[in-house]
Write a structure and sequence with these properties.
5-stranded parallel sheet, alpha/beta, UspA, Rossmann fold, Sig_transdc_His_kinase_KdpD_N, 2 domains, 6-stranded parallel sheet, about 375 residues
């Protein structure tokens, strides 16, 4: 028997949470969850269904047949009997793993907890492991983006922290073409909803955007977790743009160029100013840097300021620390004689940053005083 993290259940510890995430209904999240649950059951793991919707899908229903289902609780709402997941019955049953479909669901009014994800957190706190499913559009921070893509405002939402706190995240992927085929074949919705779905949410352009959003969100989440845990040997998936600033007026132009690049690449934006430890900044220079910092923040970037006697080394160190993939730097304003004697920053950066792309932007020398006069008057 292969060892899995779900074989034993230590009640003194929180349960483990595995989330199956997809770009849209019908990609196969529930089916994949059931497949893996049945495999674990065959290995001797105690797996039960807490709540699961087959939506009339035959393949899904076949997977359900082999698993024990905890009976649902009946709740009367507005005179009608409705059924909801019975958390207390699951606790009494004490399984090693419970399957909970549609994590973003809102519970029937009168339930002990408002949202299904709160039921899941309650079970996890008691040491019960949970497998759950959710679509990318239900995460709170992506709500506006999804509404812009699809024109649909998703009302059932869950906190982003659930993705951060999950022990495992499994992306269940399908191409837009396959998903549309499944919809037309009646494997997602009933026949009367197919044509309307194809014209609205299931348009190809919507599915392409949602698929990219799902894959990118999970990749970014993995990167952030590994950063926090100090893992230095991971592969950086997300592009990161570093704009190197100076106290010359060209910096705002570089910052705008870097922001456009970051936007096109859907990348994180950083701006860096390297301060000479042997030189004091003038009031005009301090004012200008503060303005650049505000501009960077307006673009959604992070402003970095370090003190170092060697500008090129400082840029290289920051680039390595923040896993930078693109560096934007202005053309040198030094004289040819100075460059001949000391070399250019660009040449040194090319030696230091062999796997980073350098963008050298042509600049025109303008004094800070002139820029401030322009800005103020």
């Amino acid at each position: 028997m292969n060892s899995t993290p779900y074989e034993s259940l230590n009640k003194s510890e929180s349960g483990k949470h595995r989330i199956y995430i997809g770009m849209a209904p019908g990609v196969g999240k529930t089916y994949r969850m059931l497949q893996e649950a049945n495999s674990l059951r065959e290995e001797g793991i105690d797996v039960v269904i807490g709540l699961l919707e087959t939506h009339g899908r035959e393949e899904t229903a076949e997977q359900v047949e082999r698993l024990e289902q905890v009976p649902l609780k009946e709740i009367t709402y507005q005179g009608k009997p409705l059924k909801e997941m019975d958390v207390e019955a699951i606790i009494t049953r004490q399984p090693q793993i419970v399957l909970v479909d549609e994590l973003a669901h809102t519970n029937i009014p009168g339930s002990l907890r408002e949202k299904r994800y709160q039921d899941v957190e309650f079970l996890l706190n008691l040491g019960i492991n949970v497998f759950s499913t959710v679509n990318i559009q239900h995460f709170e921070s992506l709500n506006d983006v999804v509404a812009k893509i699809t024109g649909v405002l998703v009302r059932e939402r869950i906190p982003d922290r659930l993705l951060d706190e999950a022990d495992e995240v499994i992306v269940v992927d399908a191409t837009p073409e396959i998903l549309q085929e499944r919809l037309i074949e009646g494997k997602i919705y009933k026949p009367e909803k197919i044509e309307q779905s194809l014209r609205n949410f299931f348009q190809r352009r919507n599915l392409v955007a949602l698929r990219e959003l799902a894959l990118r969100e999970v990749a970014n989440n993995i990167e952030e977790i590994e950063e926090l845990e100090g893992e230095g040997n991971y592969c950086c998936v997300q592009e990161r743009v570093l704009v190197c600033l100076s106290t010359y007026s060209q910096s705002s132009r570089l910052l705008r160029r870097g922001a456009r690049l970051a936007n096109q690449m859907k990348a994180r934006l950083y701006a860096l100013f390297v301060e000479d430890p042997e030189r004091f900044l003038s009031k005009d220079e301090i004012f200008y840097l503060e303005w650049c910092q505000q501009l960077c923040q307006d673009f959604g970037g992070e402003f970095l300021r370090v003190t170092h006697p060697d500008v090129a080394k400082a840029i290289a160190e920051v680039a390595e620390q923040h896993h930078i993939t693109q560096v934007v730097i202005g053309q040198s304003l030094k004289s040819r004689w100075n460059l001949l004697l000391k070399g250019s920053i660009v040449q040194r950066l090319m030696r230091y940053l062999k796997e980073v792309d350098l963008h050298i932007i042509a600049t025109t020398f303008v004094t800070i005083f002139y820029v401030h006069k322009f800005l103020l008057f």
